[in-house]
Amino acid sequence: MMLTKTTIAALLASLSFVTAVPQGATSTSTSTTSSSSSSSSSSARRSSRYAASSSVPSTRPGLSSVFHGAYSGSATVTGALKASSVGTGIVVGGVPPAETTYPSDGQLHDAQPAPYVPAGGVGTNTTPIYNVQSDFDYESLALALYQEWIELDLFQYGLKTFSDSDFQDAGLTAEDRTLIEFMAEQEIGHATLISNILGAEAPQQCNYNYPFTNVREFVDFCQKLTRFGESGVYGFLGHLNSREAATLLLQSISTEARQQLIFRQFDGLFPMPVWFEVGVPQSWAWTLLAPYISSCPANQTRLAWQNFPALWILNQPNPARYNASQGFNETLGAGTNTLNSTGISGSAACFNNTGQSGNCNPAITQNRSIPLSYPGRVVNLTWDQPGKLVGPNNSYVTSSSAGTPAYVAWVSQLNVTYSALNLSSNTSGSTVQPDVETFAGDPAVNGTLFIAITDSDIFLTPFNLSLINEHVVAGPALYQAG
Q1: Domain boundaries along the sequence of the chain
Q2: Pairing label, strands 472-480, 448-454
Q3: Using an 8 Å Cβ cutoff, are 137 and 194 in contact?
Q4: What is the tens place of the pLDDT at every residue in 184-235?
Q5: Separation between Cα atoms, residue 140 and residue 235, nearest integer Å
Q6: Where are the alpha helices (DSSP H) in 162-270?
Q7: pLDDT by residue (tens digit) across 67-76?
Q8: With CB atoms 3.0 to 4.6 Å apart as the test, which of 183, 294, 383, 437 could cross-link to 474 if both were Cys?
Q9: Secondary structure class of 235 (helix, strand, coil)
């Protein structure tokens, strides 16, 4: 049977969501300035979308006006959200025998519940309920919603802040600006979806403080922010109690993966230099996100995740340079370590450079013969001590339960690799970029990946990576390996 628009809308509206109640917001975020060709294109797209049936579920609006800048007040509440009882740590059990006894020989070993349906699977015989089912679910999706809200504002803010000629000078056209505008519209849908799952207390949009000063820095910040937004969700999807919510969130974050790829293309980087995308714990994503949230509305839903001390990569590879590894102290702060392109000009700049290594203009793909980084490269690091106020209204406090810093953890693709940390002080040191492969022919250290200072080289895999948290001294930081 073919479903009509009305039928599809009715099905969407009838999904078993908790109904979200927008809190104090009456319209979508401030519209952005774009060129006439961009505006006409988006108007045509919108006219088709808004012609849909009135029964189509409505979107949740963001704030009607978002403030941008640092927060100067004092928090009335500090620290992460805590329950009345807090244990001392996660107890890791042994491997249940049934987990390793399936023959895995390609044959069917149990009766089929229906034709063409093999035995097994979870949730295939239940009515889906798209609600959170535990504190873990709620806090994970609330973190994802904080991420969607900042992306909505970030994309709009960049379009509003920089002129058409600013984008053109960075090699981006009216069509490219329209694509960024559409990405902002995608975030409205993502924020609405997660808000509907969470319910009336779902976090609202906040006010933000961005580090970039030009289009090149804006694009690099976007590719790094979408990196940890995507990876932060991959890190918890498999652990959600609500498989139904996980299914919808996966369909949302798959779009964010495409956004990250596109911003890499805008950044003049090879779009997908890895075989597998990396997942990280919620506290890693929150540590990277929180510093850019200056303040939130009163009674904002708080998060339970940890904020680790900030980590700077002093010689972060700078994609704005012809030779990216030659940069030193060229980032816009810790954590994301976004490139700083100010003062890079002439033969040192890769934009419009026709030299042997190729330029870094926006493109479908760029193959730079001088790599951004390489195995054996010395990486210089410095980090904060715990106890710094960060995040919305300066209301969260950085902390660490780790011992003496001894290693740098490189978290990329399927790997958690450690390199020795050579201390030069209590809060600074260096390490050597490891030479390791995921599988033969796939360098594990590539793309936009995560590093952290740890006290131990504990063995971990993607599914239990959150066990690293108690060993994190500082970080994570995003390392621009390629």
Answers
A1: 135-297+304-481
A2: antiparallel
A3: no
A4: 999 999 999 999 999 999 999 999 999 999 999 999 999 999 999 999 999 9
A5: 10
A6: 164-169, 174-198, 215-237, 243-266
A7: 999 998 888 8
A8: 383
A9: helix
